[in-house]
Amino acid sequence: DALLLQLTNTSAYYMYLLLLLKSEVYFAIIAVCLLRRTAVCCNGERS
After folding, report:
1. Rounded to an integer, what distance in angstroms lies between the CA atom of residue 16 and that of residue 24?
2. Chain segment 8-30, per-residue pLDDT in tens
3. What torsion, rounded to 10 degrees, do the Cα atoms 10, 13, 17, 18 define?
4. What is residue 47's predicted lDDT score, i.e. its pLDDT?
5. How far apart are alpha carbons 41 and 10 in whole angstroms?
6. Which residue ranges traverse the bilayer (predicted)?
7. Which residues of 3-31 are buried (b: 16+ CB within 10 A; e: fewer)?
8. Cα–Cα dist 32/27, whole Å
9. Above 60 in pLDDT, residue 46?
């Protein structure tokens, strides 16, 4: 029973870690896209 509890806790921990990693990746992609878009806008306005 203790083993099952430990397994459940471990799987929950890894699931949380995975979701956190996923959200960080999405945030990084969105940040890069926004930075690219603003860079393109700035370059377009300059020329």
Report:
1. 12
2. 999 999 999 999 999 999 999 99
3. 60
4. 47
5. 46
6. 13-35
7. eeeeeeeeeeeeeeeeeeeeeeeeeeeee
8. 9
9. no
Kindly report the CA angle at 30 between 39 and 15, in degrees rounded to 5? 160
Q: What is the pTM of this model?
A: 0.61
Residues belonging to the chain:
47
> Amino acid identity, residue 3?
L
The pLDDT value recorded for residue 42 is 72
CA distance 15 to 33: 27
Using the predicted structure, report yes or no on whether residue 1 has a pLDDT greater than 60.
yes
